[in-house]
Amino acid sequence: MDPLDFLEPEELLSFLHVQKTELSCMENPHTFITQLRDHDLIPEDRYKKMKRMRSKDKMKKAFYEALDWLERERSQHIRLFWRSVFKDAIMKQYPTLQLLHYSLMNGSFESDIQLPEKVEKEDTDKRKGKESSEDEEGEVKKANSGKRKRKQNRKIVSDEEEEQAGPSSPVKKKSKKICFSSPLKKGEKSEIWTWAFFKSQLLVTCGRQEGTLYRDKLAKGEKCIMVNKEWFTPAEFEELAGKRSSRNWRKSIRCKGTPLGKLIQEGHLKSVRYRGSKTAKKSLFPSEDLNTVSEDEDDEDENEESDQDNEDQDSSSSREGGTDEEEETEEQTEQQSEARHDSGRKVFNVTCGALTGTLHKHRFASGYRGKSIRTETSWMTPVEFAKLASGQADSCWRKDIRWEGKPLGVLTEAKILAIHSLRCPCTRCSPDSKDLENQKNDDVCCICKSEGQEEEEEEEELVMCDRCPRSFHQKCHLPHVEEAVLGDSSPWVCTLCEYRTGPECYYQDEMTQEAVVSRQITHHMLECQYLLLRLCCADEEQTFAKDPNLYLSDYSSVIETPMWLGSVADKLQKQLYQTVGEFVSDVQLVFTNCASYNREDAEILATGNRLKELFDREFKNVFNISE
């Protein structure tokens, strides 16, 4: 919503007239002046003269004169002037412009541009004092003066306004009232609360009542909404708007059509319990049942008068439900207490309906920001995860996503998952295009489970698959990723995805295991690489990845022929195997050695058996081996 679309050129010109002095006092106005020059709003010679000035006082004087010249000589381009200086890059450099833009948004500028009546009257009296008498010549002069004045006013009006007013209409077009309701169609997104100049205040409405909400006061539980220079709590503002019967300010008070409860829920606003509020309660989900009501429905609700019977019934229901609310609060407190015992965890297994995934704490930012939930096929934000599971766009992620049978909101209330502030500059909250691409893939290599480190020569940068969320080090992947591939802009697909999408890898006819192991491996390299990568990915603790002799001093005395997955990968990369059977034998040897050495370690034995069963099952599926 751009306020310049709703204001007349005369109003914008008057606004410049009263703000010239304030603008001329801005520190280091060179960028501002350059912007005016770039839009041909000031002459080149005046611009060069100002750029050469070193004295601050002279600069302020010259700056004011330039604005004064612009007001007189470029009045027909006043809308272009304000559009050029209200660019985001310019406003970030000059806080004065942010305040001026905000005054246009909330309508407070109207009181600034209404000049006192006496100014015009005194000038008129002076002109009258200079006239010798009220003779015919004086009357002609006054008439001509009036014509010149009307002619000057006509210059201010844009061509578009003249066409709309029509040649027969002498009445000046009435100024449009700024509309704060959302001009967007249903389904479109626009986060007005993220605009830079709304850092401290938000324009809010309740029915037809408008006000300004101050963020810091809302977070402290103070009177936070100002209407006509008077402060109100959210409940009082709701009552002022004639919606006392709703008793749910989180739903009835809105910013650009979005209920405050939803902004609080998503982390855009912070709020605490208001003292003396009958409806305020400590809840994990303060707005879980919120539904965005259309503006037409809102207007109808405002015009309806609730009778006394309904009010009495609501009061009775509120008293009867007090016990349930207390029990609910106690249960939620218990859940938060239990959740705090898991504050050191980094990964949480979550579900939403039939959909499962893992939530990674270091990736979490809020419901909409930070792709923190990993499924088998992709990374998602909590909102995307809940939407995919339920098929509904308005699902509540804090309530619908579950962790160990409890709502995910338990973790946010217990501060285990911290919702980032609205203006957080981190790469999760303010990502560039590269960061967005990186969020689609894992942060660690799915084989060695470590990150890529560019600054260390022995470590490689992670290579990301363009078809799945997995990431790999160049030498962890099979086959190794060549440097030429990194420099290629075309999509790169990992072996796991390549095998699953390649129809040539599926055998239509059933085969026996004896027939498969006798085949030359050169014709089945992709299948073997796929099988080994599946094993390495499943070895979460890297139990079988490295040579056991490196960390077990007595291993060689117990195991005659050591073997580990890293060694199998090296031999496969160097093409040292002749047949599929040689490859399978080495993999089986890893688990045979595990069973021999770890007879008294049930945990390691269970891990080895699980991976062995995985390999046997995948091996039969890949080669279509009959039982």
Give a short overview.
The chain has 627 residues and is of the alpha+beta class. The chain is built from 30 helices and 14 strands.
How is this structure best described in words?
It contains 30 helices and 14 strands. The protein is α+β, with helices and mostly antiparallel strands. Among the domains are: 3-112; 199-275, SAND domain-like (SAND domain), CATH 3.10.390.10; 347-438, SAND domain-like (SAND domain), CATH 3.10.390.10; 504-623, Histone Acetyltransferase, Chain A (Up-down Bundle), CATH 1.20.920.10. The strands form four sheets. A six-stranded antiparallel sheet has the order 10-9-8-7-11-12. Strand 11 and strand 12 form a beta hairpin. Helix 1 packs antiparallel against helix 4 and helix 29 (580-597) packs antiparallel against helix 30. The chain is elongated.
